[in-house]
Amino acid sequence: MSCTQLAIIDNHRLFRTLLKDTLQQDERVEIIYCSGSGIDFLKHYPVLKPAISIVSMGLADITCPELAKRVASCTYACPIIGMNHTNGIEENQAAQEAGIINIINATDGLSDLFDAIDYIREQPVRAVNCSEESTYTVRPNRRTREHLSSRELTVLRYLADGYTSREIADELHIAEKTVGTHRHRIKTKTGTKNTPELIIHAVRNGLIK
Question: What is the per-residue pLDDT across 6-17, written as a single tens digit (0 to 9) for each?
Answer without folding.
Answer: 999 999 999 999
